[in-house]
């Protein structure tokens, strides 16, 4: 299960109002890929965008968790890409439709290896970056996210029971943009972890 929210700068660049509550959507397990597998442009998509994000990996069942206890439910972290069919999303937003096709297609969630909690002393202050074909496109810090990590876990767990292994994507810095077949995406969290994916 996957959920996400945006940074203020990212909301602004897409012309969206800054949300007062997290905007939630799901990605199915078939969206997951790991390094060595390729990101595939979904059928009919003409504008596939990259969004690099910190992922929270849930460590134990969480239901209606208070913010004060929320960090105890994190098992670890990962680096993730929220690949978005922007043309599908724009059409859905314009017509009041769900974002399922835009966000949940096969290969839409490349993830890194699991990052142990001990390696991230302060997950709310982490540099995050992304390059396409060697050119820096996104560079930001997790401190710029609209909602804190404890708030996200608490808010989501009031509506959805979070289970061990679930991942919450926490939002992307500004600089999202298109990728095309043949492109190479590289991204990382500070100097802790990096990953790369080709687009087919």
TrEMBL record:
Keywords: Metal-binding. Belongs to the FAH family. NCBIfam families: PRK10691.1. This is oxaloacetate tautomerase. Pfam families: FAA_hydrolase. It catalyses: oxaloacetate = enol-oxaloacetate. Its EC number is 5.3.2.2. Transmembrane segments: none annotated. It comes from Tegillarca granosa. Residues 8-198 form the Fumarylacetoacetase-like C-terminal domain. InterPro entries: Fumarylacetoacetase-like_C, Fumarylacetoacetase_C_sf.
């Amino acid at each position: 299960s996957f959920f996400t929210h945006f940074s203020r700068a990212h909301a602004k660049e897409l012309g969206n109002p800054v949300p007062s509550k997290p905007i939630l959507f799901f990605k199915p397990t078939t969206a997951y890929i790991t390094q060595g597998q390729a990101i595939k442009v979904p059928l009919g998509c003409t504008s596939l965008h990259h969004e690099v994000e910190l992922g929270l990996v849930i460590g134990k069942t969480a239901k209606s968790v208070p913010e004060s206890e929320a960090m105890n439910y994190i098992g670890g972290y990962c680096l993730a890409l929220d690949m978005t069919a922007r043309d599908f999303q724009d059409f859905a937003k314009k017509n009041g439709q769900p974002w399922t096709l835009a966000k949940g297609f096969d290969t839409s969630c490349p993830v890194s290896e699991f990052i142990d909690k001990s390696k991230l002393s302060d997950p709310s202050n982490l540099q995050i970056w992304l390059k396409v074909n060697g050119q820096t496109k996104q560079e930001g810090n997790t401190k710029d996210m609209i909602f804190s990590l404890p708030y996200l876990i608490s808010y989501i767990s009031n509506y959805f029971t979070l289970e061990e292994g679930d991942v919450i994507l926490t939002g992307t810095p500004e600089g999202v943009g298109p990728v095309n077949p043949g492109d190479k995406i590289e991204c990382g969290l500070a100097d802790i972890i990096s990953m790369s994916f080709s687009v087919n």
